[in-house]
Amino acid sequence: MRHKRIQFISVLFVILLCMVISGCSVTIQKGRRSDMEKIESLEYEAEALNARLAQLEEAKHGEVSELENAKKLLEKQLKKEIGAKEVRLEMAEKGLAIIFLSEVLFDSGKADIKEDAVGVLNKVTRVIKKNLVGRNIGVEGHTDNAPIKYSGWKSNWELSTSRATSVLHYIVDAEAVDPKKISATGHGQYKPVVSNDTPECKRENRRVEIVILPKNMERIQADIDKITERKRKIQRRLQKYKK
């Protein structure tokens, strides 16, 4: 009798053990199936983001290419002035910068554009009208750190702002740009490109910059940043599910 009871208990234990194992197996399989579905969904989203990212990078390249082409045209138009180191062109992060030494456009301490500066400004406005339609343009005025003494301006801020505004008016009057798409800023002495230690350095810091901004670059870059961040989150989640 005792032997039968032990045998019964053993059989019952085996049955219970099988049920437990079977239940765990179902739970594990369900868990794995759920994780696999999440992994597939995340990988699909990652592929779609990669495709969109490629489109945005192509659009960004197109924006830069247009400015590079305009830079080449301006290099031909301003060959003489560039050779004389009166004008220089730069592809900066903010866009294409056309940088004039102030003495090319203005007499010392003045903000009225000189008559003999009209020719060089016309070269720039022609390229803007023909090749850079619809772009936003910023005109920036800069000075050296010499304090105002005799010219009557309150400070270098007023002088640099007035010079930038004079160039803005010239560009608008030449119908090279929609007035809604251009702005003028005076930085005074506070954004030098070199130290103000020598007269030559001071000369370089006295300048006016016409900055041609990429048409949609800010929006494109913002979208690229958002997609890149989303991809990082997806990669972190995939690593979690694949552990």
Helix fraction? 55-70%
Uncertain runs: 24-30
CATH H-level name of the domain at 60-220... which superfamily?
A: OmpA-like domain
How would the global form be characterised?
Answer: elongated
Based on the coordinates given, report the CATH architecture of the domain at 60-220.
2-Layer Sandwich
Enter the CATH topology name of the domain at 60-220: 60s Ribosomal Protein L30, Chain: A
The end-to-end distance, rounded to whole angstroms, is 52 Å
* Mean of pLDDT: 85
Widest sheet, order of strands: 1-2-5-3-4
Number of helices: 7
Question: SSE order, as H and E?
Answer: HHEEHHEHEHEH
Number of strands: 5
Q: What proportion of the residues form beta strands (DSSP E)?
A: 5-15%
User: Which CATH top level class of the domain at 60-220 fits?
Assistant: Alpha Beta
Look at the helices and sheets and give the structural class: alpha+beta
The Rg value, from CA coordinates, equals: 34 Å
- Biggest sheet, open or closed, and with what strands and sense? 5 strands, mixed
